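Risk register update: the risk of archive-format incompatibility is retired. Evidence:
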Amino acid sequence: MEPRFITNYPAVLVGGTLVIADLHIGVEFEFYSAGIKIPSNTDKMKETIIKLIKITKAKNLLIVGDIKHKVPGISKQELREIPSFLQTLSDFVKVEIIPGNHDGGLKDYIPDNVKLHTSKGLLKNDCYFLHGHTWPSPAFIKCSYLFVGHEHPQIEFCDALGYRFTEQVWVHAELEKEKIKNKYKIRFSSLPKLIIIPHFNRLSGGISLNLPSKYVKEARKEMRIGMGPIVRSAKLSSSKIYLLDGTFLGELKKL
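Archived output:
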């Protein structure tokens, strides 16, 4: 089943399932701790998700990791907002979660009617979904598409005067057969297409995939080739980059 990308939103519809990633509820508390006061974005995200559910007529909502932001532990904001956020959404659709690297202990704070899967991922409609900080189950190899979050992909633009701005992007990439073969030690004739999901909460920040290496600190250079193991096993430089409105920007290595 072909995925349907929702124009102008970091969301995709697969069958009757609306898929989003990287909500990072509670990121404002981190800013507050640093002396920066920013109003909570949680209600706005909830309203947007409900709008998308109604537009797409989705029956299910799949959140591909990083519901919460604080690592380790959980902030007062997360304790206050996450249960009611998920409960409200579950009044509209069945809610499922694949935990991300920020979601330690999440199972203790979600409503009983919200399904929490393992970090190894989930198979749905010939697509495999994974947050991306771990290797997926070998079952992903037989799918047509592998969706991951975790990377917060964006592209940086700069004009002749030096003004810079960034835009979230979808990344479509091919996986390296040798790297997958070395990891899983199984035979396959083809591999799924890797699709990196943009972060739903823009306050959580992004990684500019096209930022020249000379502007990237040594500790962050690795992020330009992927933070998670499955993205590091992809041909990221030749990946195809799309804005949220569907505009095709070209291959990453040309941007």
